[in-house]
Target: 1,4-alpha-glucan-branching enzyme
Amino acid sequence: MDPLNQQSQNSMYAAAAGGQAPDGTGIIDMDPYLEEFREPLKHRFAKAQKWIKDIDQYEGGLEKFSRGYEKLGFTFSDNGDIMYREWAPNAEQAFLIGEFNNWNRDSHPMTKDQFGVFELHLPARDGVPAISHNTKLKISMVIPGGERIERIPAWITRVTQDLNVSPVYDAVLWNPLKHERYVFKHPRPPRPQSLRVYEAHVGISSPELKVASYKEFTRNMIPRIKHLGYNVIQLMAIMEHAYYASFGYQINSFFAASSRYGTPDDLKELIDTAHANGITVLLDVVHSHASKNTLDGLNQFDGSDHQYFHEGARGRHELWDSRLFNYGSHEVLRFLLSNLRFWMEEYHFDGFRFDGVTSMLYTHHGIGTGFSGGYHEYFGPGVDEDGVVYLMIANEMLRNLYPDATTIAEDVSGMPGLCVKLSLGGVGFDYRLAMAIPDMYIKMLKESTDSEWEIGHIAHELTNRRHGEKTIAYAESHDQALVGDKSIMMWLADAQIYTHMSTLTEFTPVIERAISLHKMIRLVTHALGGEGYLNFEGNEFGHPEWLDFPRAGNDNSFWYARRQFNLPDDKLLRYKFLNEFDRAMQLTEEKYGWLHHPQAYVSLKNETDKVLVFERAGLLWIFNFHPTKSFTDYRVGVEEAGTYRIVLDTDWPEFGGFNRNDRNTRFFTTDLAWNNRRNFTQVYIPCRTALVLALESTL
Model:
């Protein structure tokens, strides 16, 4: 057996040697409430074991099974020969057609094997491939009843769209000469201890009214992201999607990098350049559903309703208007696992943010379901066990083949064990997104005044996460930027964002409040909310307005489908203050590493004073959310004695503040217990200001 395959299998059983339950119930030691659900946990784990055993027995292991792209789709020999294989079990006949044979439907028939895979070998002539690079083609099939259908090959790696001709994509054979292919120059960076994630969409990454390119992102955005101090880029909308306004979440070609932004080599250069700058790159992968397109998608690919998806209502997402995968199908499993492997191998991505995980975990897909936190919701009849087991195996495969890979789950349900390793009975993700945090902020800003903010509620929401499962916190992501909603800065500044963000205009109370709270909300989220932090591009500087892609409803305008990076670069605009604060926040985390330190100890939640105090990573954090009251000689508890200095102050003038605390002030501790801490110190904490103090010896 291949060593990698043996490792894959052994990882599931080696738990016993380390004192872990060999039946996948070790997770119960982390969460005793799961004891009641021991049997469902064992069943789930046993199913994952069986799937992996079957793959080991019949496919030679996960390592080989996940290289389906080396056999299916178009593959190329060194001598120029081309082999094309396609799984289409419902089709009775298949033919390869394209520009290479003048779209002749009969000249290149394919042969079908017992597993429903069609095959065609195209020998080269004198080393010249039978099909030229960048040639359009399709597969033409005859299905039961005699109907002929034509489709884009399911494993195609390049598709293009010419809206002047048709919205339907064309499949293109991507096979450049070896000396023309991009060659990676830089190794993947080490896995970050702290994840500071910059969520980005290539197409909107420009202030210009257009679709930006991979080349422009490489040239303009990577230096900006590096300067800001982020160490992870999470790229959205890379997998090819027919409808630009879908934000990349209606995938039609799973192995093709979007051609809107450039060529596959352009994307490789982008990732390689990020790696050269020490930045990890994650792909926002969509395995939760697929576009319902038939002519240029997977839907009814071989004429049947159930090839890649569940048939009938179970195979359709009623809100997303898309198709839902049948994760229990052997060939679907091959397709999806190979898809993950392809993006890791071909493009050197460093991991994935899995979109729509809630939909994958439950047969109701989260539709009309308000999760109460009751454990019966996570192990009852509403759970899609096949979807859970697919995610278990996907994470296990990635962990074994790429030990430094990072996986993030977008799940709103709070399923226990989502970020616990498989050997303990978990699903195996590294991180989950803290999706309740941005909802809290929007609710606060919409429904209450500053004086009504509950400090205890803020602290609870930011620390309310499952023990032993890492979380990525964020104040807002792309979801909050979409049309119909408003960013935090828009909620805070409202109409004055258009009239008073210039330093030449009055610093009004509205703008003062907006800038102050924008900084404080981000800092408290970063410090208290999780083991990782995420920001959607542009929000670091308080990007105005919302995000809306060109569509019929807005006359196909690009006005809101862009990020105005000219704003923070303009020295006469106050956006620069928020941009510089965000940078200082990231760089301070890089120095002190609070994201990979244990959860904070909260020593004070004063509802009257609106003051929040906690310690994390040896730092003392003091937040005064009060809209009008400043406090002198405010006593705060601190565990470690010594002399403290300010390392970050939201009130510094370079961040648009009033500089009310001398940054050279030394804060001495007194050996007297306060708020369950061994010592206390006293500070001046102005209204709507946050201070971060560190021991003088660590500066």
